[in-house]
Design brief:
Layout lengths: L2 H11 L2 E5 L5 H11 L2 E3 L7 H4 L5 E5 L5 H16 L4 E4 L7 H11 L5 E2 L3 H7 L19 H21 L11 H13 L7
Parallel strand pairs: 1-2, 1-3, 3-4, 4-5
C-alpha cells in the first residue's frame, strides 16, 4: 500500500488510538494523531487500561516516562490489546540508558508488539549491538541500523506468520485495516531471510 492510500484508508476508518506515552511527547502525540485523522486517548491509569485497549483501533506504548504504576499499565494494556487482536506499537525510548529501562523494554518485547519503533541507536542496542545514543537521542545513522532493523523485522514477520498458523481464530487485522497492512508490508519487505532467525 502506498503512503497516500494508507493515509486515506486511516482517515476513512478514523480509529481510536490508545496512547500511553511520556509527558514530553503526550501533547505532540495527541495532536499528530488528530492531524492524521485518528482519535487519540491518552489513558494510562492501571484501573482502566485493560478495559480500554480492546475497544481501541491501535495502542502505542512509549517508555519515555517510567514509574511502577505506568509500567503496570503498559503491560496490562499490551496483554489486553493482544487478546483482542488490537495492533500495538512499542517505542523503547532510551532502553539502554539504565538497567530498569532495559528490563521494562525486554518485558514489553516478550508481550509481542506488532510494531517496534525506535531510533537507530535504540534498534542497534536491542539487537545486541553497541549504539552510540545518549538518552533519547540517536548517535547512529539509519544506515548503521539497517542490519539490526532487518533482524527485528524478520523476528516480527515470522512470529506473526507462526501465530496465524497456530491459531485458526487469530486474525491479525480486519480487511482494509491500514495499520495492519503497513506492518505486514514493511516487515515483509525488510525481512531478507527464508526461515525464522
Amino acid at each position: 500500500m502506498i503512503p497516500n492510500a494508507a493515509l486515506e484508508a486511516l482517515r476513512a476508518q478514523a480509529p481510536l488510538v490508545h496512547c500511553i506515552t511520556n509527558y514530553v511527547a503526550m501533547n505532540i502525540a495527541a495532536n499528530v494523531t488528530l492531524a492524521a485523522g485518528a482519535s487519540p486517548a491518552m489513558i494510562h491509569a492501571p484501573e482502566e487500561v485493560a478495559d480500554f485497549a480492546p475497544i481501541a483501533g491501535a495502542l502505542t506504548i512509549n517508555i519515555g516516562t517510567l514509574s511502577t504504576q505506568w509500567v503496570d499499565s503498559m503491560k496490562a494494556a499490551a496483554v489486553a490489546a493482544n487478546s483482542a487482536n488490537v495492533p500495538w506499537v512499542l517505542d523503547p525510548v532510551a532502553h539502554f540508558a539504565t538497567a530498569y529501562r532495559a528490563k521494562v523494554a525486554k518485558d514489553l518485547l516478550t508481550l509481542q508488539p506488532t510494531i517496534l519503533r525506535g531510533n537507530a541507536s535504540e534498534i542497534i542496542a536491542l539487537a545486541g549491538g553497541a549504539g552510540s545514543g545518549k538518552g533519547a537521542d540517536s548517535g547512529d545513522s539509519v544506515n548503521d541500523a539497517q542490519s539490526a532493523a532487518e533482524v527485528w523485522a524478520c523476528r516480527f514477520y515470522h512470529r506473526r506468520r507462526a501465530q496465524r498458523q497456530r491459531h485458526r481464530r487469530f486474525r491479525p487485522y480486519a480487511e482494509g485495516d491500514s495499520f495492519g497492512m503497513l506492518f505486514n508490508s514493511a516487515a515483509g519487505s525488510l525481512c531478507r531471510c527464508s526461515t525464522e532467525p
